[in-house]
């Protein structure tokens, strides 16, 4: 790197200010001050937060790439290569994280080191120091923009989201079962993509509820900011888990499934009311609380044979087949004697002990399997001894599964269907579906599809261009 000398053969010429790009950080246009008096290059960053394991530490931060525009925020992440003490031009010293990224100026691209610091009050979002400049670079101190100009307009187009680099994400799995197959698969897939995935025990979370700064604490410390939360909340802690999810939602974290959808899917009565409201096919269903209404209740569900389900049933438990009206009366009487809440539902004979599980992620069916009940059993749940095999679903079945997931506002849902003579009927919508059975049967990587959706949803989106007044 040399200052301008008339006798020096120019190879690459820079003025005291230049346009540049940091494509690896998702920053396609920045104005930088070229300062040979500064040794280290510096990038404007705020909300700087280290994360990840000690042996491969990362840092994430946000950037306002356009001076004076705090409404445009580009989230970034990078591997930490050092932490250094840096003295600024005004004599102040601070420890800064150091990262590495490719820089593009004109037709050239090369790697440089950058320190992260808040330059929000400065006219240039980046300072290019002498350490980043090679010997064949010529600096013309009296000139500006020797290399081709870029434009901030790129931040207002879909190109920003489309070209956004793969960021290291911090993802939380809300679960009490860190060793469960689905949880292990999510962790393994996330880490294989370079993300940091943490399993958080739902019951060890507690919340500071206030209007201006809602927080979630865990084991005595405030939880860090997560890019996404994947709820794997057990039935026994549904209410508390939903409260924790509401807190994440209030903070602005992307939640794969929100509290509203989780609660609705777990309440079978509410779930069937949602399906009915959205005109989604389901077996005829009835519910009542008075013991005097047993016969009418049976008639509303279409007479025997009937299925009687506890509202809190899961994995096929608490589900009874009553083949005659008398048997149905006995089962209903027994459940009422226990003061249990239950549904009475028409039994779809033509399904012949089979159902179809469709796994819906981000509004599309990513896998499907057919479950067959064990001999002598009507429940096809794998936990009840059923078997699974891949299946080709019809367009009507696909559309029904997608509509059902959308009705509950779930980004991840297991939708169970019956094939009836009247078309597909939804049995249940599961907001925390297991991965093992469907991955084994279909051969699909469900965890990968889930992370595809998460990565798509947490990318930065273009900000509308401000229109000057007057």
TrEMBL record:
InterPro entries: Asp_endopeptidase (IPR008503), ATP-grasp (IPR011761), ATP-grasp_RimK-type (IPR013651), ATP_grasp_subdomain_1 (IPR013815), Peptidase_aspartic_dom_sf (IPR021109), Rimk_N (IPR041107), Rp_bS6_RimK/Lys_biosynth_LsyX (IPR004666). Its EC number is 6.3.2.-. Its cofactor is Mg(2+); Mn(2+). Residues 272-455 form the ATP-grasp domain. The keyword Ligase applies. Pfam families: RimK (PF08443), Rimk_N (PF18030), Zn_protease (PF05618). Keywords: ATP-binding, Ligase, Magnesium, Manganese, Metal-binding, Nucleotide-binding, Protein biosynthesis, Ribonucleoprotein, Ribosomal protein. GO terms for cellular component: ribosome. GO terms for molecular function: ligase activity. NCBIfam families: PRK10446.1, rimK_fam. PANTHER family: RIBOSOMAL PROTEIN BS6--L-GLUTAMATE LIGASE, RIBOSOMAL PROTEIN S6 MODIFICATION PROTEIN. This is 30S ribosomal protein S6--L-glutamate ligase. It comes from Halodurantibacterium flavum. The lineage of its organism: Bacteria, Pseudomonadati, Pseudomonadota, Alphaproteobacteria, Rhodobacterales. The gene is rimK.
């Amino acid at each position: 790197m040399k200052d301008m000398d008339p006798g020096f053969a120019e190879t690459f010429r820079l003025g005291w200010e230049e346009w540049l790009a940091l494509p690896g950080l998702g920053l396609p246009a920045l104005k930088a001050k070229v300062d040979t008096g500064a040794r280290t290059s510096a990038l404007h960053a705020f909300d700087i937060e280290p994360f990840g394991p000690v042996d491969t530490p990362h840092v994430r931060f946000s950037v306002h790439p356009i001076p004076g525009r705090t409404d445009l925020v580009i989230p970034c992440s990078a591997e930490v290569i050092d932490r250094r003490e840096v003295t600024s031009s005004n004599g102040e010293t601070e420890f800064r994280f150091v990262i590495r990224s490719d820089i593009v100026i004109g037709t050239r691209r090369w790697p440089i080191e950058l320190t992260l610091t808040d330059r929000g009050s400065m006219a240039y979002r980046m300072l290019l120091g002498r350490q980043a400049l090679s010997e064949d670079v010529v600096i013309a101190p009296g000139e500006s923009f020797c290399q081709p100009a870029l434009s901030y307009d790129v931040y207002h187009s879909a190109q920003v989201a489309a070209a956004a680099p793969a960021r290291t994400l911090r993802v939380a799995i809300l679960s009490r079962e860190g060793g469960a197959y689905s949880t292990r698969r999510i962790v393994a897939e996330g880490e294989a993509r370079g993300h940091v995935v943490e399993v958080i025990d739902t019951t060890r979370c507690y919340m500071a509820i206030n209007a201006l700064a809602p927080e979630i604490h865990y084991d005595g410390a405030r939880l860090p900011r997560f890019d996404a939360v994947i709820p794997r909340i057990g039935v026994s802690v549904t209410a508390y888990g939903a409260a924790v999810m509401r807190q994440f939602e209030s903070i602005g974290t992307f939640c794969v499934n929100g509290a509203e959808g989780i609660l609705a899917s777990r309440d079978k009565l509410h779930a069937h009311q949602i399906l009915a409201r959205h005109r989604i096919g389901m077996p005829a269903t009835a519910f009542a609380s008075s013991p005097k209404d047993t016969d009418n209740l049976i008639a509303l569900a279409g007479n025997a044979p009937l299925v009687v389900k506890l509202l809190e049933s899961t994995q096929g438990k608490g589900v009874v087949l009553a083949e005659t009206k008398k048997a149905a009366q006995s089962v209903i009487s027994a459940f009422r004697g226990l003061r249990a809440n239950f549904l009475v539902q028409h039994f779809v004979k033509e399904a012949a002990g089979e159902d179809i599980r469709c796994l819906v992620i981000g509004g599309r069916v990513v896998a499907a399997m057919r479950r067959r009940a064990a001999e002598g059993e009507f429940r096809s749940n794998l936990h009840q001894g059923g078997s699974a095999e891949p299946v080709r679903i019809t367009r009507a079945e696909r559309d029904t599964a997608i509509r059902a997931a959308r009705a509950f506002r779930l980004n991840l849902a297991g939708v169970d269907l019956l094939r009836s003579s009247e078309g597909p009927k939804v049995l249940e919508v599961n907001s925390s579906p297991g991965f093992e059975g469907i991955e084994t049967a279909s051969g699909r990587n469900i965890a990968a599809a889930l992370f595809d959706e998460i990565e798509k949803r947490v990318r930065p989106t273009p900000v509308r261009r401000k229109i000057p007044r007057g």
